Amino acid sequence: MLIALVLMILYEIYWIRYFKGSKTMKDMYSSLLKIPVAGATLPVIAFLLLGIYGKNVFLIISAIILGIGHIGIHLNHRKEIKSVYDYKY
Length: 89
What we know:
The protein has helices at 2-20, 25-28, 38-53, 57-85.
């Protein structure tokens, strides 16, 4: 549970960094502490860990489904943006 809390704090730091920055697409799909697409990855992992901690099968399954879609879409968008704008992440 402590790890999930730390991940959610990092998620808040990600958003603070985004809103204090230039708010570009590069910022939206950036990494945080080498965690790729942190805006999508951090909450999904936190929910998965909470499901494991609480032994809640429905939360675990939901987090896995959310992770496949949410992280997958963000990685795909980052790839498209990188090719169009030649960003380096």
